[in-house]
DNA sequence: ATCAGTATGGAATATTAATTCCATTTCGAA
DNA sequence: TTCGAAATGGAATTAATATTCCATACTGAT
């Protein structure tokens, strides 16, 4: 019954894929139905598996899977996989290129720029939601919740984040001290046993932040680091690393993801301390 | 120096991968460093790309990428990819599913909270993108671009925004002054003809911010107000109102939309001043 | 039970990607 | 400046993977 594949343009996105899956899957013979069912339930595996793997998991022959791909409107498995791979990495198209294009078209009006930042912000938030390590987050909250005083350090680009944390902790009556380095004074003698520290720093890393964080760590205080990449100077054993990769635009980033993470940390610590559920 | 790869067991998970990345990346030659940097920032692409694609994106030859994989302790690219593919299929389906998972971990867990903030942030950004008045934005940029000096005021909850603007302007060498009210001193005599002011305030409005903004306005300076509601104390003729309605969660908000608007303003003003197209 | 039309399994082939190898270039010490 | 070692680019090789093909097994109508 499904021998002849009607010449059809392949699905371009998940919705089209699902639609086609639905319409196609009525009256499919056994093996092809297995394919449909397996793929419907395991959409996320398509991007990272080979036909052979998927076929084995669906308990059919690779050739059956191939036929199914064609019935779905793709030229073959590769084309289908291409769709899912592109969707998967949609969280990171090349922003600088897009922006360059936008500017070349003379569309550098403030509103166009805003659209870019909004977009970048949304992507950053999505990445944060998918990439955050819940275990590390729990760990960070636990170590901060029992601290006598929470020291905050973040300079230059990261200063707003530290400042916001300071505001949030004050609101929740959690003792916190913002090290803003005014007057080049680094109140590091304020770090006392029983305290903890949150350090926020992004490439290019600010030395003062690193120094204070390492000093606290050396003194045996719990340290939580909010940073960007995997390779950063605060990646040392014992420091809880919370990684945020903000999609940025040139030298600037909107800090959406970073602030969301920070506020989460603050509220979690605050409610745990105050016994609020 | 990196010719001989010490026989080493390959990283088994992201943590180990990151650790190894860190230790390895000191004193790497040019091309290999490019690999390290690219991969560090694009970890999520590894699962769904070919060596050739990654190499091209990192602007190196495939063989360089292969060498890097070996330095990382893998037998080759395939083994490294295997690690990321296995993590992918277990850890993250799609974003919305992931959010649901985060929430499922218990209502008061940090991860659940993070999901809420991420969601709130996204909604705020969407609203901002659709609700912003392009004309007012243009007007704000125009009046700021010609100012001699830009004064910034935002206290308490809004302070991080003012601080970030201050950072951004400094980066772009636009003269700006952050009125942070330390020591309860309000340098209002610093407001001079030819200057302009950006005031950021949200309900409950901080009196000092209002005062300074009104003083500037009375002195005939252009004033741009970043605020929430339509009815706010700065809604007076002559003050350019930029409205942001941040969706908040509990008592706190992540400021995603506000910061995006702020950074847009800063970059627009900066590039108009510096004549950058 | 027989036949025509499908469906299926599995091996054969074509394609694409990973990996290696080596000639050439670059870098740094003498 | 010269030499040797390390790094690099790119082509050649090898391995893996997708895709096709066809002989065989079903299925259901007569």
Structural commentary:
2 copies of one chain form a homodimer. Chain A has 277 residues and is of the alpha/beta class. Chain A is 51% helix and 9% strand. Chain A is built from 11 helices and 5 strands; from the N terminus they run H-H-H-H-H-H-H-H-E-H-E-E-H-E-E-H. The first copy, chain A, has a 5-stranded parallel beta sheet with strand order 2-1-3-4-5, with helices on both faces. Chain A starts with 13 loop residues before the first helix and ends with a helix. In chain A, 42% of the residues are buried. Residues 1-7 and 90-106 of chain A have low confidence and may be disordered. At the A-B interface, helix 7, helix 8, helix 9 and helix 11 of A face helix 1, helix 2, helix 5, helix 6 and helix 7 of B. The structure holds a DNA duplex (30 and 30 nucleotides).
SSE inventory with pairings:
Two copies of one chain form a homodimer.
Chain A: H1 14-24, H2 30-41, H3 51-58, H4 62-71, H5 77-88, H6 95-104, H7 110-131, H8 134-145, E1 150-154, H9 159-171, E2 176-179, E3 196-201, H10 207-218, E4 223-227, E5 239-243, H11 256-273
Parallel strand pairs in A: 1-2, 1-3, 3-4, 4-5
Chain A binds a DNA duplex (30 and 30 nucleotides) through residues 1-3, 29-32, 50-52, 60-64, 66-67, 76-78.
């Amino acid at each position: 019954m499904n021998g002849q594949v009607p010449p059809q343009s392949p699905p371009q996105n998940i919705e089209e894929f699902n639609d086609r899956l639905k319409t196609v899957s009525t009256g499919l013979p056994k093996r092809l139905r297995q394919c449909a069912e397996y793929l419907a339930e395991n959409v996320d595996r398509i991007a990272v598996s080979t036909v052979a793997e998927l076929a084995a998991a669906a308990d059919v022959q690779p050739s059956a899977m191939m036929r199914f791909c064609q019935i779905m409107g793709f030229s073959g498995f590769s084309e289908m996989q291409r769709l899912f791979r592109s969707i998967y990495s949609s969280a990171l198209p090349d922003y600088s290129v897009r922006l360059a294009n936008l500017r070349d078209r003379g569309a550098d009006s403030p509103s166009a720029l805003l659209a870019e930042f909004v977009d970048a912000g949304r992507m950053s938030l999505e990445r944060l939601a998918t990439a955050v390590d819940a275990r590390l987050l729990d760990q960070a909250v636990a170590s901060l919740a029992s601290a006598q005083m929470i020291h905050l350090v973040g300079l230059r680009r990261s200063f707003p984040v530290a400042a916001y944390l300071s505001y949030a902790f004050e609101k929740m009556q959690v003792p916190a001290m913002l090290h803003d380095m005014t007057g080049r004074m680094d109140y590091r003698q304020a770090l006392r046993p029983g305290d903890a520290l949150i350090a926020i720093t992004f490439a290019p890393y600010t030395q003062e932040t690193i120094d204070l964080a390492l000093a606290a760590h050396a003194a045996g205080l719990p340290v939580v680091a909010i940073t960007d990449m995997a390779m950063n100077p605060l990646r040392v054993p014992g420091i809880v690393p919370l990684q945020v990769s903000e999609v940025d635009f040139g030298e600037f980033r909107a800090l959406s993801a970073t602030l969301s993470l920070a506020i989460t940390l603050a509220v979690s610590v605050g409610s745990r301390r105050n016994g609020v559920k």
